[in-house]
């Protein structure tokens, strides 16, 4: 390879030498040396050069970087590469050297183990990276489909399964809560029916808000979800937490005055949103509500179990709850004439089991009565327990004094915890009332189901200390449940039955309301639970139990945001409520904008959120933005006018759905937009006076009209400007639109033979032109009758772009130009010429001509040209159009006179008429010449040809 390179270099040098010899000056000597000679001479030259100075300078430079160059050079010079490896490692092992063989094998095993571990780690990393990439891509694809409004494939059947009682070791088996819901119709129809059922509750809620009354929204949502036990249970949990009554007394009731009615709206907002952690009283209420919901659920299970096994239950005629529990224990634990082993019998009855199940369903007083019936026997076995139970039952927080608690703890640790024959239900009762051994959360043969385990945890929650770091606090339990995660509470994807949403109920029990909504929305059930997610968010926002995200924290992809806590505890969840609502309503907002607005009215509920600063007003702005978006997306026509309101033929307005719901958006009607708003004022007076309201005109009407105008929806934009009372803006928009119509497409000029002119437009463009012209004439007629759009402000002075009615004058003149076009298209060129002369845009009157034939009063034409700069901008843009129309009209009239068609009188009259037309044609040419830089050369050429036709 080196020889090849040297040969090529040699040949190249020879070629270069030849080139230099051919081109060098005659006095330049040549060098004829081989490569070896050149190298030898180069070495001699180098040896003559003293390089010690360069070495010294290099060492000095390296010394500045703390590098000893001379020492390193000596080390490199004395380096012996032959001793790098030991001689023993390079020599073969002897057959009899067992120790060396073992050492070598050990070293090789270590090397192979390290290499195998490295390879496994690398493969695991790439595998995890690939899985994460695929998962992120699926998530992004799902979000993209949601943004585009595409439907997500769902299963062909909907199976709703709830967590059931599992088989116990004491003989009770079979599920008591599992319920299969068959699908009798296609899912799309079923989903539509479900959405309508929930939608009616939101409409009723907003109606109550307008009326200034409360509404039991959670009970209404529970009724709407009556075919899904798990969703109904989820709403039941929220009912217990919020303590919402099932109904309100009717207004006809004597004590049902509006001032005496309970207030549900934002009832818990101050306690929940004032600080990152809910207030102490609210935390107690959340834990109590979760426990009560689980107790109510278990009571229904007991009832169904007893009624489904009447022969084993032997219920009898006693209607008490204690007798019902006794029958349940018989069904569960009594087999073949004897009780199952493991139960401690007192006078032949499993008293501990009965007491526990009574406490399990919340009947503490009934449980105490059962204990009192067996008081003598129990005092002999467990002295002091009944008194401790009584104190625990009578306590509002279900707690015991420290002394009694320590006594029960001593008995629990000494005699019960490690015993093999202890009744598990007695163990559970000791653990429960004394809150013992909180870290050991399961009790064998007692917490056999998920619901039992959860009830035990919430029953042992103690918020009396107020310390969130306490092991028995709600915050500590929440950390444990979040660490377990959804997979411990939901069946795996692909198992029998899809996920039921039970994890959302667990999150509600913990007070993690935002996480509960997000878990339902992001559920792997084909979007079947997204409807419930939205309406759960509506109920939470109404009661003030939802923390919304700010713009800085929120995301366009994920609706849930986790912000770091200032105290270093669990992150603070917040929900992008406006994103959630928009993703839900956009699938039907085009077909039913009124129903979409009902959900937008929920956003202003969070306007009172204090932190982060400004997030409350951001919710108002988000609601207004969605309203504007819905108006723009809605199609025009009667349905659109029903949404925003409209104007009748006589100029009077009729309100739409949106103006009647302004109080829900924290908006107030503008006096100039809706002068007759007594009903609106009465509704808005029900709102708290501390809440600031904003102008409906400036926040909704004007921005939406501007957006419609930019989307080339002029009729809808004009209607909104008219509703806003911006009459001058309406006239200005009409002037611009008519100017565009005349100048660029609404009227296309095609010149026929013989000087005739045809005005034509084709297809949809002609229909739009006709509609615009009709709308403009109607609006100007009404405005003229009512004195609107005159360009005068409230004080009577001229203001704005329509000062002095300039826009209105431009509209009138542009409509005349369009009318002249119509007459010319019908062949009435004389009438077309008269209409064009009436606009006074072009000097066509006889006063511009002097006494001599063909002469033109240039001074008058010049003044007319100077006035042109004062004309409306739309009229200036249309200058080439109406000049050509005027010349065509003159040419058409002259052609008719010369041919004698439709002309009465003698030759003298014809000659006089032609002379007048020539004067007008010459005046038109002079006028065009003075404005020559405003038109193209083609227009000037056409005008010149027309002037020649008139003059011939």
From TrEMBL:
The keyword Nucleus applies. It is found in: Nucleus envelope; Nucleus, Nuclear pore complex. It holds the Pfam family Nic96. One of its GO terms (cellular component) is nuclear pore. GO terms for biological process: poly(A)+ mRNA export from nucleus; protein import into nucleus. InterPro entries: Nucleoporin_int_Nup93/Nic96. GO terms for molecular function: structural constituent of nuclear pore. Signal peptide: none annotated. Keywords: Membrane, mRNA transport, Nuclear pore complex, Nucleus, Protein transport, Translocation, Transport. Its main location: nucleus. Belongs to the nucleoporin interacting component (NIC) family. This is Nuclear pore protein.
């Amino acid at each position: 390879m080196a020889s090849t390179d040297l040969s090529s270099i040699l040949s190249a040098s020879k070629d270069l030498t030849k080139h230099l010899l051919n081109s060098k000056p005659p006095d330049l000597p040549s060098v004829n040396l081989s490569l070896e000679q050149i190298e030898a001479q180069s070495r001699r030259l180098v040896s003559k050069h003293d390089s010690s100075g360069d070495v010294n300078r290099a060492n000095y430079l390296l010394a500045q970087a703390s590098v000893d160059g001379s020492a390193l050079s000596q080390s490199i010079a004395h380096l012996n590469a032959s001793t790098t490896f030991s001689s023993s490692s390079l020599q073969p092992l002897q057959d009899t050297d067992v120790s060396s063989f073992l050492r070598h094998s050990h070293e090789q095993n270590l090397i192979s183990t390290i290499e195998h571990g490295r390879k496994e780690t690398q493969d695991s990393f790439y595998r995890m990276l690939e899985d994460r990439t695929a998962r992120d891509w699926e998530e992004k694809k799902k979000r993209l489909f949601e943004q585009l409004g595409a439907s997500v494939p769902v299963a062909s059947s909907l199976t709703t399964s709830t967590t059931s009682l599992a088989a116990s070791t004491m003989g009770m088996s079979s599920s008591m809560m599992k319920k299969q819901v068959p699908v009798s119709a296609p899912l799309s129809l079923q989903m539509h029916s479900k959405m309508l059922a929930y939608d009616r509750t939101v409409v009723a809620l907003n109606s109550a808000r307008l009326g200034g009354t409360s509404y039991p929204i959670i009970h209404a949502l529970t009724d709407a979800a009556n075919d899904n036990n798990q969703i109904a249970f989820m709403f039941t949990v929220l009912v217990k937490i919020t303590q919402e009554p099932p109904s309100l007394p009717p207004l006809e009731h004597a004590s049902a005055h509006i001032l005496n009615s309970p207030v549900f709206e934002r009832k818990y907002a101050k306690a929940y949103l004032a600080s990152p952690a809910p207030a102490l009283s609210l935390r107690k209420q959340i834990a109590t509500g979760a426990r009560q919901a689980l107790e109510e659920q278990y009571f229904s299970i007991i009832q169904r179990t007893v009624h489904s096994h009447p022969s084993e239950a032997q219920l009898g005629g006693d209607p008490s709850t204690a007798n019902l529990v006794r029958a349940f224990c018989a069904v569960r634990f009594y087999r073949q004439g004897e009780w199952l082993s493991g139960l401690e019998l007192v006078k032949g009855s499993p008293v501990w089991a009965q007491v526990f199940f009574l406490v399990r369903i919340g009947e503490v007083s009934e449980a105490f009565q059962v204990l009192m019936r067996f008081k003598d026997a129990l005092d002999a076995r467990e002295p002091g327990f009944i008194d401790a139970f009584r104190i625990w039952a009578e306590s509002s927080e279900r707690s015991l004094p420290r002394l009694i608690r320590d006594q029960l703890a001593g008995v629990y640790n000494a005699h019960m915890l490690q015993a093999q024959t202890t009744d598990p239900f007695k163990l559970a009762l000791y653990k429960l009332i004394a809150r013992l051994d909180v870290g050991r959360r399961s009790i064998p043969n007692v917490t056999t189901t998920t619901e039992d385990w959860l009830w035990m945890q919430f029953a042992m929650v103690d918020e009396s200390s107020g310390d969130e770091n306490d092991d028995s606090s709600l915050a500590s339990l929440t950390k444990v449940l979040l660490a377990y995660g959804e997979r411990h509470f939901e069946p795996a994807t692909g198992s029998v039955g899809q996920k039921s949403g039970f994890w959302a109920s667990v999150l509600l029990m913990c007070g993690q309301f935002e996480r509960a909504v997000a878990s339902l929305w992001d559920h792997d059930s084909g979007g079947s639970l997204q409807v419930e997610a939205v309406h759960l968010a509506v109920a939470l926002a109404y009661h003030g139990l939802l923390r919304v995200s700010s713009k800085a924290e929120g995301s366009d992809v994920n609706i849930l945001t986790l912000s770091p806590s200032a105290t270093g505890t669990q992150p603070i969840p917040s929900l992008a409520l406006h994103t959630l609502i928009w993703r839900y309503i956009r699938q039907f907002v085009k077909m039913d904008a009124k129903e979409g607005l009902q959900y937008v009215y929920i956003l202003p509920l969070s306007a009172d959120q204090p932190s982060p600063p400004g997030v409350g007003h951001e919710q108002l702005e988000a609601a207004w933005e969605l309203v504007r978006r819905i108006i723009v997306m809605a199609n025009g026509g009667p349905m659109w006018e029903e949404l925003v309101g409209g104007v009748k033929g006589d100029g009077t307005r009729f309100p739409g759905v949106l103006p009647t719901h302004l109080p829900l958006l924290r908006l107030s009607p503008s006096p100039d937009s809706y002068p007759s708003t007594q009903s609106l004022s009465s509704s808005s007076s029900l709102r708290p006076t501390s809440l600031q309201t904003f102008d409906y005109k400036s926040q909704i009407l004007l921005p939406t009209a501007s957006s419609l105008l930019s989307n080339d929806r002029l009729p809808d934009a004009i209607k909104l400007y008219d509703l806003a009372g911006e009459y001058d803006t309406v006239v200005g928009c009409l002037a611009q639109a008519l100017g565009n119509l005349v100048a660029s497409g609404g009227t296309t000029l095609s010149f026929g033979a013989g000087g005739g002119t045809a005005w034509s437009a084709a297809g949809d463009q002609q229909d739009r032109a006709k509609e615009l012209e009709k709308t403009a004439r109607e609006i100007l007629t009404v405005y003229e009758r009512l004195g609107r759009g005159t360009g005068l402000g409230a004080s009577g002075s001229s203001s704005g772009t329509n000062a002095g009615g300039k826009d209105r004058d431009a509209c009138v003149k542009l409509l005349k130009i369009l009318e002249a076009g119509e007459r010319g298209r019908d062949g009435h060129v004389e009438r077309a010429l008269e209409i064009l002369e009436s606009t006074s845009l072009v000097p066509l009157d006889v006063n511009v001509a002097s006494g001599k034939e063909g002469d033109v009063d240039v001074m008058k034409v010049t003044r007319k040209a100077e006035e042109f700069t004062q004309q409306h901008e739309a009229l200036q843009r249309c200058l080439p159009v109406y000049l050509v129309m005027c010349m065509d009209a003159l040419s058409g009239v002259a052609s008719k006179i010369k041919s004698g068609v439709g002309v009465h009188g003698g030759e003298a009259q014809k000659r006089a008429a032609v002379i007048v037309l020539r004067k007008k044609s010459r005046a038109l040419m002079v006028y065009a010449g003075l404005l020559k830089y405003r038109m193209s050369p083609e227009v000037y050429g056409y005008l010149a040809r027309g002037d020649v036709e008139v003059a011939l």
